[in-house]
Amino acid sequence: MPKRKYKIAVIQLNLNDVAENNLKKCISWVKDAAAKGAEVILLPELYSSHYFCQSEDVENFALAEPLYSTSFIAFSELAKELGVVIIVPFFEKRMAGIYHNSAYIIDTDGTEAGLYRKMHIPDDPHFYEKFYFTPGDLGFQAIETKKGTIGTLICWDQWYPEAARITALKGAEVLFYPTAIGWHPKEKEQYGENQYGAWMNVMKGHAVANGVFVAAANRIGLEKYIEGTEGIQFWGASFIAGPQGEILAQASHDQEEILIAEVDLDLQENVRQNWPFFRDRRIDAFGDITKRAID
Question: How far apart (Å, rounded) are the C-alpha atoms in residues 292 and 8?
């Protein structure tokens, strides 16, 4: 019988532009999370470098790695050593000219349980991801691991209820969101509270609407590496929410931290029995959702 309870962790970190340093750092923090009892562990988006999408620069493609190379080898060995599931977000080089913002889901025996490629790609000031990433082509997935059935979505996917819904309908018990989101420093005073609040509220809404646990791992720190710009101040605030949107664990805006919470499938089932949103969906009336606009 699958376990009815298991512990998940999100790791919130400050990351730099040296891949080797980031790999060593993340390995150390994953070990700490496992020692604290975590069984499924999430790292922030694009863990191996600074957030390079602040500019459109072909030299940044050198940060990408082919499938099953450095990151997979290291975290596969670690997952097997610790007996945990690790979600590893990385910059994938699929072939010359085709790159993805991806995440491995590595099982407790070191094998690949799944691979997710970010489906929604933003193009905003200093978040120029469309220059680098081809939209994902593997779809939304619920991935069976030896600890539980989980779904991984990445950052900009956070804003789309359709992504959360499909992943949950496929059986995901937890939606994991590796993330790199922050404030433009000059906008923080005027817009910062609303931006951060919207980010949390939309994911808490996914938890409620789908009766799932939600875990988001963000990075922290001011990443200012382009001359003449103010950079991005990543706002941290990683969190884990339960199936009614209740906050089970919450990180600060500016400290490296590990958050741990328990996934309780009996609680999830009880919530869905009392709030049967899946039962009452009018799927016969939802056809227009596949249109770009209804005009």
Answer: 36
